[in-house]
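Issue 218. Parser rejects a valid record. Input:
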Amino acid sequence: MMTNEISVKQMSDAQIMAAIGQTVDTNRPILSRLQINRDAEDDDNNRLPTGHYFVYHPELEQNIYGETVDFRPFYTAYQYMAYNPTEKKYSSRSVIFKNWKEDIIDSTGGTRCGKLPEAQKVNLTPAELELQKNIKCYKMSYGTVSFKGKNAKGDDVKIKDFPVLWRNTGTNYNIVNEAFTGLTNLGKPMFKYTLTLGTEKRKAGAVRFFVSTYKINKDAELDFTSTDEKTLESFLTIINSENKSVSTLHGKASTQTESDGSDAKIISQLAQ
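Output the parser choked on:
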């Protein structure tokens, strides 16, 4: 049985750059995501463990699965995203933000990807309400993950201090917020502790799904090393780069909207 291990401390600069998103491979997310597996098998008909966490391993080019994982948070924030189910892709995204009082601009020239407060949805049409359902706010948690896992073929793989984005919405949004509130109540920076994450199965009508469970390892306080400092700086670089990209797209979209409005006004005046 093959055993592999990936650790930031043992990775080359090129490997670290690939892990934290400093690559030119646009077919992959900028940062590996920590996710809950919901698929019973993969495209090669390998049986997969549903309800287990997984991350994409950049060296093996495989997903690695673990029943429980230790997540060490470094930074947490929020981001709105609008999903287009017809095109099966996200059509708009906001800047990553921490303060709800901020001007949360998005990539399509508006704010919050068009998400409206509940009070403003009263007079919307059914079609407009459906569009609102596809605009979600995500809890964006950046950190490192460690666990003993397996790939789809059952080979052992050890993941150690691997940088990831843990992105949550829906039911998990509240669970993760609760976990971070618990960390804040300890009165120290969140990166001094880890969360041991598991899952539990729930049912809503005929739909069965998994949500996260957590345990704060408050009796095992961690030091903040020079390696940790570089990891945090890498996360901040990724976030700043994303926000710069959204800001640029926002400016272009706003300019185009103003231009379209001016053209429409001129055409209207000529037609009179």
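Fixed in the parser; the record now loads. The chain has four helices and ten strands.
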